[in-house]
Every structure is written in structure tokens, then in C-alpha cells.
Amino acid sequence: MKSFLRKEIVKCLVHIFVIPYLLFSIYYPIWLLLQSDTYTKESIEKVPLCPCRVSTTWDEKQSNFTTDPACNVRKSGFWNCRFHYGAAECYRQKSTTASASAQCCYDINGRWISDWKKGAGTLDFYYPESWRNISTYQHFFSDVLSYFSCSIGGTRIFTSCKQYMRYRPAGKCEIIPLLYAYKDTDVNLSNGDFMLI
Question: Could you report the average pLDDT of every consecutive run of 10 residues in the chain (197 residues)?
């Protein structure tokens, strides 16, 4: 009886840990072979630039970008911002001329994060629209699955992340004045923000 139980436990552990690891070990090198510096450069030129700063009111929409449900400051839990550890919130916007999209992540002060080790967003070759849309599955296989190597768990495999970020960089940001509406007339604008009345 003990021998049977031990075999079942080992079998279960193999299914939970070893098989997914082996599948990933096969998938990532193939994914890497299919990547192209030229295609990455063309895609990064087609996606919108991230705002260098966003309002820390964390509105659902900021500068035509919408909140990424996978990294939302209003949510909590283990999986929230798990792929962008260090970010407070991420936003996405699809290109108007390609299937690619920009994912922009921000720290708690609303500053754009460009370093993947601090939670930066990435260029996505496919914009995830809905579970009924093929682009969501393309996004999973093209952009997400290969990212697992450096974002899951407490450790990051730096060589895999560097290779991944070569083909899925954080992108670029542009300075867009923050627009605030205040009811209070005693407002200090010395920090460079702008006010819309």
C-alpha cells in the first residue's frame, strides 16, 4: 500500500512539475529561432509611444491607453502584476496599422518603467482583445508563453529574459503633459504638471 501511494505521489509530481518544464524547454528555443531583429524594429515603430508619466489616480484610460487587467493597482492577489513585478499598473494600446500593441507599465509614482528587472511592459506582437478573438491566443503563444522563463516565481533566468527583451522590448516613451481638474483654487503647479479647467 505504501509503495503504491509513493508511486502515485511521484507520478503526480512529474505531471505537475516535470512535464510543463520539459514542454517549455522545447518551446522556448523554437520560439527564439523564429524571432527577427528586423520584425521587432518594424513593430516597435508601429506601436504608440508610452506616456513617460501617468496620473496616479490610475484611471481606466490614460492618453488613449486602457488598463491591462493583468496588472491593475485596484486589484490584489498573487497573479496581479506577476509578470511585471515592481509595477503598480500597466496600460495597453493597439497599433492602428498592425496587430502589435504597446504595453506600458508604471511605478507607484506614475513613472514609466523601462527596465524589465523593475517591471517594464513589453512590445506585444499581438493585442489580446477577448477570449473569443484569435489574437488573444496568438498573444499567448507569441508573447506570453516565452516570457514565463523569466517572470514566474521568485527567481528570474537572466539570459532568457535578456533574449526575450531583445525581441519584446519595453519600447519608448514620450512626455505628455498630465492634465488634472481641480476644484481647489490653491494648487501648486511647480512639479511640472498641467491643469485643465
Answer: 68 65 74 91 95 94 93 90 92 94 96 94 90 85 80 55 90 82 42 42
CB neighbours of residue 165 within 10 Å = 18
Q: Which among 46, 56, 142, 29 is positioned nearest to 100, based on CA atoms?
A: 46
Q: What is the pTM of this model?
A: 0.77
Cell of 137: 491566443
Q: Which three cell numbers stand for residue 12?
A: 503526480
Determine the Cα–Cα distance for residues 24 and 28; give it in Å rounded to an integer. 6
| Whole-number Cα distances in Å, 4 to 14, 36, 59, 112 | 15, 50, 55, 54
Distance, CA of 124 to CA of 82 (rounded, Å): 17
How is residue 68 written as a grid cell?
A: 491591462
Q: Which amino acid is at 45?
A: E
